[in-house]
Amino acid sequence: EQLMKKLYSALMTAFNEDNTVDLQGVRAMVRYNIDVNHIDGLYVGGSTGEAFMLNTVEKKAIFKTVIEEANGAIDLIAQVGSLNLEEAKELAQYVTDLGYKTISAVTPFYYNFSFAQIKHYYNEIVKDVDNQLIIYSIPALTGVSLSIDQFAELFENPKIIGIKYTNADFYLLERVRNRFPDKLILSGFDEMLLPALALNVDGAIGSTYNLNAKRAKAEMVAFDAGDIQKARDLQQVSNDLITDLIQNDIYPSLKLVLQELGVPAGFCKEPMSHPNPDMIAGAKAIYTKYLK
Ligand code: HMN
């Protein structure tokens, strides 16, 4: 079935036990997303990719590996945002040259930047590149909340085409959706996919779709067909899964469950946790309960 709304996995980065990047593991996760998940696209270099713990060389190697492995099969969005604006610009140019058709950048965080400074950051990132950008808004992790009028001001730049909206504020989502009908709005909280669909987002990006894409797609199909009870039932199972993942430490657990599915997803990068026996047992139980 051909859906209008798109589902993207937030790609993870596989690490070796010594915290170096494992590019073979990255390739394997790209393949799994294409061949098994039948995903529409990947969001590369985001929170789930542990990108804010990587250096520029590592980020570039991942961007290059992913676009090579995907080989035109799916949409790719490169998250290039960084507190180091020079790095963000360098990465924007790098991924544009590689062939990424869309970039994204997290709102700059930590220093309580003013809106004028945030606007300058976005306009600088897109200024010299022939590419389009999606704002990555994730207030829970950045502490940065943009208002409807601030989104409008950012959208005055025609290269800024949308929002990755990782926010539980559905009032704002409704306001944004209806004020900017032509902008791309991609929902970021997997556990809130159904209410986001109800407000007519263009799709979703999330970490759990790396292993739960089939169920999420089925929910989107049910929603499209007007079978809301079926969509709710599927969201309920997904949320049982997501709750168990969060309780078991979500990022390492996603990788452990992928390993159960035959994907060499590797380790997380410290200070993210390396797995202990309880976590491994928890991940096996999650696999058996929801994905076997
Ligand atoms: C990314 O930037 O990599 C992701 O798209 C982020 C994504 O929105 C995830 N958010 C975080 O990890 C903070 C969600 O998929 C999230 O993991 C999921 O909804 C479980 O809470």
Tell me briefly what this model is:
With 292 residues, this protein is of the alpha/beta class. The chain has one domain (6-212): Alpha-Beta Barrel (TIM Barrel), CATH 3.20.20.70. It contains 12 helices and 8 strands.
For the secondary structure, the number of strands is 8
CATH domain topology? TIM Barrel
User: Termini separation (Å)?
Assistant: 24 Å
Q: Percent of residues in beta strands?
A: 5-15%
Provide the residue-averaged pLDDT. 97
> Percentage of helical residues?
40-55%
Written description of the protein model:
The structure is a single chain. 49% of the residues lie in helices and 13% in strands. The chain is globular. By secondary structure, it is of the alpha/beta class. It has one domain: Aldolase class I (TIM Barrel). The longest helix has 20 residues, at 228-247. The model has no long low-confidence stretch (mean pLDDT 97). An 8-stranded parallel barrel has the order 1-2-3-4-5-6-7-8, surrounded by 5 helices. It has helices spanning 23-35, 56-70, 85-98, 115-127, 139-142, 148-154, 170-179, 193-198, 209-224, 228-247, 250-260, 277-291, and strands at residues 6-10, 41-44, 75-79, 102-106, 132-137, 160-165, 184-187, 203-206. Helix 7 (170-179) links the parallel strand 6 (160-165) and strand 7 (184-187). 2,4,6,7,8,9-hexahydroxy-5-methylcarboxamido nonanoic acid binds next to strand 8.
Features:
292 residues, alpha/beta, TIM Barrel, 8-stranded parallel β-barrel, 49% helix, globular, binds 2,4,6,7,8,9-hexahydroxy-5-methylcarboxamido nonanoic acid
